[in-house]
Write a structure and sequence with these properties.
Blueprint: E1 31-35, E2 38-44, H1 46-49, E3 53-60, E4 69-70, E5 75-82, E6 84-90, E7 96-102, E8 106-109, E9 115-119, E10 124-131, H2 140-144, E11 146-148, H3 162-165, H4 169-172, E12 175-176
Antiparallel strand pairs: 1-2, 1-11, 2-3, 3-10, 4-12, 5-8, 5-10, 6-7, 6-9
């Protein structure tokens, strides 16, 4: 049996709009959005966890580096369940790190640290969890990207207009660093 709820973001969703309700979601059936060449699927967010954490997946093809960004109040986890993802992180002292993560590998990004990633193999998947005192940012994906009912990757990459990047930080704890340069390899 599938239950559907209306949320502030969607006319129908399998995610309950408030905390305190146990629920189950079949693979891929969370709230989905296309952003860049990737498919993001949210399974739990601020509404369900009283703004303590979120849980989402990112699936994508081999592609380009996503724009560098940071989360001033949010810690982020990257766990690779398929394929390979190259994670770039800069610590608060300015030291930069680059690591190729493959299936079963884990990456941690502290709050306020610039980071980016590039999917290195087709059909890669990241499980993401983010938490912090600033709340959660999972609704960023559908606000900067395009909400979708599709289960697959976008037919064409969804690249937001440059001015749209500036609308995100106040609402979703995401600060884009469009001029950031990675000095690793």
């Amino acid at each position: 049996m599938t239950m559907e709820f209306a949320t502030p973001y969607r006319s129908r969703s399998q995610i309950p709009p408030a905390p305190g309700t146990p629920y189950f979601i079949e693979k891929g059936m969370g709230d989905r959005a296309h952003l860049f060449g990737d498919l993001f699927t949210v399974y739990a967010g601020g509404e369900q966890t009283e703004n303590t954490f979120n849980f989402f997946t990112c699936e994508g093809p081999k592609g380009d580096l996503i724009p560098a960004h940071s989360h001033p109040d949010t810690y982020e986890v990257f766990f690779i369940t398929a394929g390979a993802v190259r994670l770039f992180v800069e610590d608060i002292e300015g030291r930069q790190y680059e690591k190729l993560l493959t299936t079963g590998d884990f990456g941690f990004v502290p709050k306020n640290c610039p980071h980016s990633y590039r999917i290195e193999r087709h059909h890669s998947q990241i499980v993401g969890v983010a938490a912090g005192p600033g709340g959660t940012f999972e609704r960023f994906f559908e606000n900067l990207g395009t909400p979708t009912e599709e289960l697959g990757l976008p037919q064409r990459p969804h690249v937001p207009a440059p001015e749209k990047f500036g609308t995100v930080p106040q609402r979703f704890d995401v600060a884009f660093l469009l001029d950031h340069q990675w000095r690793t390899r």
